[in-house]
Amino acid sequence: MNAAQELRLLNDYQHDFPLLPQPFAAIAGRLGVDQADVLQALTRLQQQGTVSRVGAVFRPRSIGASTLAALAVAEERLDEVAQMVSSYPEVNHNYQREHLYNLWFVVTAPDEVALQRVLKEIEERSGSKVLFLPLVEDYHIDLGFDMTGCKRKSDSFIESHTGAPPKPYLPSEQESRLIAAIQSGLPLVERPFAAVGEAVGVSETDVIEGVRKLFRLGVIKRLGVVVRHHELGYRANAMVVWDIPDEEVSQLGACLGKLEFVTLCYRRPRCLPAWRYNLFCMIHGHDREEVLARLEEMRQGCGLQHIACEVLFSTRRFKQCGARYARAAA
């Protein structure tokens, strides 16, 4: 596989992964290579860290319970506390950011009780109050990366990635086993859905239809190659937080979500008096200057010049993996 074909593999199949018995053969046919070439490339890229996994990305709070959380940790204890936070299997992202609240992490659990248990333990073990910032409304959540500069967000794409989170879906026992089997990624084999089916005791057809159903319900947001932005050259990223009047947040959030360079945009609750901000968005760039230039584009494009904001650059990644929404069978 040459460089151009590898670029297409990484860029074109972050979405629209073929729901077919032999998906990698279908991709190979479109790229003009052999199935073995695709599997070898993905295996190598996963080993290198460029690809996190090939699999499903679930919509936050569509199943189970999840939240963004933050701690203000003394610098001399940051490594110790970050290691402790990352040790929880329920924590799937954990980053240091430039702010008084310097440790930001995502917790995902099968239910709200389990989520609150983890947050309480982290609070007790760290000795710091946890900022609890669950999703209220999303205006764009799709952490895919266009590596060509040619893609544009269509109206239908924006609509499908916008809105209040759906009422959490309660999966059946079989669906829970399926979610547990695919949440860490599909196996890189010729018939991945058959391999998943064998693991959970159902047919290949049942797995494919089960995935299709979770798509229709909005539980699965996308299926495909999940890349790591830093390894792709996006070495600067910032979470920009805004203090928006409550009556304006939906309108301004929708405006920001349409911008090509905004990868995440969502409303979360204020946590007064410690945290005044209610609109969050992520910008990724090749360097800080690019991110700050895009921040100015955001201000100008959506009329945010008068709105207070802070820019929290990421400085260290302690953990990044797929969320765990269901417990694997013992």
TrEMBL record:
Lineage per the UniProt record: Bacteria, Pseudomonadati, Pseudomonadota, Betaproteobacteria, Nitrosomonadales
Protein name: siroheme decarboxylase
InterPro entries (alphabetical): AsnC_trans_reg2, HTH-Siroheme_Decarb, NirdL-like_HTH, WH_DNA-bd_sf
Gene3D superfamilies assigned: 3.30.70.3460
Protein family (similarity comment): Belongs to the Ahb/Nir family.
PANTHER family assigned: SIROHEME DECARBOXYLASE NIRL SUBUNIT, TRANSCRIPTIONAL REGULATOR, ASNC FAMILY
Entry keyword set: Lyase
Domain Siroheme decarboxylase AsnC-like ligand binding, chain residue ranges per copy: 65-137, 232-319
Biological source species: Sulfurimicrobium lacus
Nuclease found in the keyword field: no
